[in-house]
Structures are given as structure tokens and as C-alpha cells.
């Protein structure tokens, strides 16, 4: 019988390089040597390259891994249905996960937990490194709010990771004069601090930012003050959205940057990232069946340029209006195949209040390529009036394992 300790090191490295990322926990429990090695080296390098479409998503308020292999879809080969597996972890099993953000191999999850006695729900934040299996619970200065927005990034000079939090005053939200407080959580000090900024731009709470090179980019709209109620429609034309970057190094927003389209509240728009190098932007006007996607040729906190990637007329592809819900557009693109994968709930959701809803992925590409892939039954957000909370949220960037240790500071539960 050959023991693990007797294997040659070359063979060990070859074996460990092929371990699935989601099975790395089993590797750690095999022997102390492999456990120690996994904390300082990426063992599953070959598996990470092979499964370039490994992502994480929120489905039915659960954090799941998603494998979406697009190999052969344009070559008349049989499409392989995506694999969705719920993350089994003591950190997530009893919680509802409502949002997930990705940056530098770390996931920031917004969770909800119901108090057994009062039946009231409270919000928590947890950061998770899937490769190292480490979690870090983030305690607030005050209570979290359901309309809070978050972003995950890092200082490009020190590589220290941070969380940005917007605290939105819900009571004044519809009057256009709501107060927003900005806080930064610093991993190195395990503390929150208020930052003194007052940008002239609003970021809508249901529009998720996308992290790129340690910074986070958002759709943002120029503030316009509503002086009273009962103002006739059209009196104050709605400004269109621009792109706004939060620079985690300077801890400031950059100047508004142009988007390659004029996006308004009723339109569908979403951002995605590509290999932590480029942004992609999806746009569909509320009254048009056409979907447009652009990618950046240059992207910095204070400069951007765009190039068209895909333009698809969806009207001939379906027998119903193809309109993504305004708060449910998660997507990613495949440059080589010129394909986009967009995730959303059932179309015509308002007709399904008493029926079963389903999550779907839409594959759209050049020359009329279109395919709808069912992702299984979904929670119906209309039943709990939480449409802004539930949609099949997918981290747009393929997951790359990270050696960033997040539980070495005070305040961690694990």
C-alpha cells in the first residue's frame, strides 16, 4: 500500500492542480501537509483554467456555485446545461442571501435572518474566501438598512481590502432630497468610519456596482432637487445615467464618465466585468426589443472609452416582448464566441403572482443565435413585496482563487 507521504512531489502537484475549487475543503482534511500548503499556494490551478466559467450566484436566497460551459454552443454541438449547486456552509445555511459582490477572489454577501421571537428580519454582512474557506462577519456601527448599498474593493497601493456602504434615508427617498451617508470598512483595522463626501450624483439602490482593478463602477444619475409635491409630469426632465467610479485608494468618487447610451429609469441596464480588465455594459430601451452590449477599450477612475460588442434584435427570436426586469439584469459575455448570457426571472412576472416562477438564462449572439435555458424554480418576490431584493444575481467575473486571508484580524466569528 502506498501512503500519501510516499508520493513524489511532482505527482502530488499534478494531482492537486486538478482538484475542483469547490472540493478544496476535502483536500485540506486529507493531511496536515496539504492543508498547510493550500493556504499559501493555489492548488487547483489546472481546474481553475479548465472551468473558466465558474461563478457564484444567488438563487432562491441561497448562495450557489454556477458552472456555465459555453464550449461548442455555436458548432451544432449539444449544449450542456449549467450546473448549480448550493454552497453548504455553517455560515450560510440558516440565512437568506439577498446580494453578492465579487472582488479579488472574495465574495461580499448581504444576508437576512429572522428573529424567532419577534419574526423581524435583520441584515448582516459576511465576506467569504471560497478557496481558503474563511469567513469574516462585518459588524455595523449602527444597524444595517434594507436600502443600504455596498461595494467591495481595495487600495491599489497597499492592497488592503475595504467595503463601501451607502446609508440611504428611506423616508425622503421619493422626494429627491434624501440624505446619504458614506462609510468605509477597513479590513486592517476592523472598523467603520464615515467619509466626508457629497457627490452631485445619485446611485439607485437596486443598481449593483461592478468591481474592476480594485475600484467599483456604478450607473449614476445627476441629482435634481424636487422643491415640492404635485409638480406636473415633465416639468423636470429626468437626466440620463452616467458611469461613476468609486476609487478605493483615494476613497473618493471620480468624475462622471460617459456611457455609450442614454439610460433612464425605465430602461434595462447592467454592468459586467471581463477578467478584471474591462467593463461590459448592457442596454435595452424599455420600448424597444433591441439589446446592445459594449465593452471598454480603456477604463480608469477618470477616463473611459467604449467599443460595440453585440447588437441583437430580439423581436424575431421570441413570441413575447423580450424585456429584462429593470433590477434583474445580471450578465456575462464570452469574447471569443461573441455570446452574452443574461439572467432574469420569468418574463411578464406580474401575471404569475399565484403561479410558479422560474429563473432563466438567455444566451444571445450574432446571426440570430438565441437560446433560453431554465435554471429551475424561483421564489416569487411579489408574494412578499420584495421585488427589489430577489433576482438571480450572478457574479459577472469568472472566479479566480485568492490567497487573501480575511480571518487574521480581530472580530472574526470563525
TrEMBL record:
Pfam families, per the entry: F-box (PF00646), FBA_1 (PF07734)
SUPFAM superfamilies attached to this UniProt entry: F-box domain
Superkingdom of origin = Eukaryota
Q: What is this protein called?
A: F-box domain-containing protein
Annotated source species: Eutrema salsugineum
- In this chain the F-box domain maps to 7-47
Q: Which InterPro entries match?
A: F-box-assoc_dom_typ1, F-box-assoc_interact_dom, F-box-like_dom_sf, F-box_dom, SCF_F-box_component
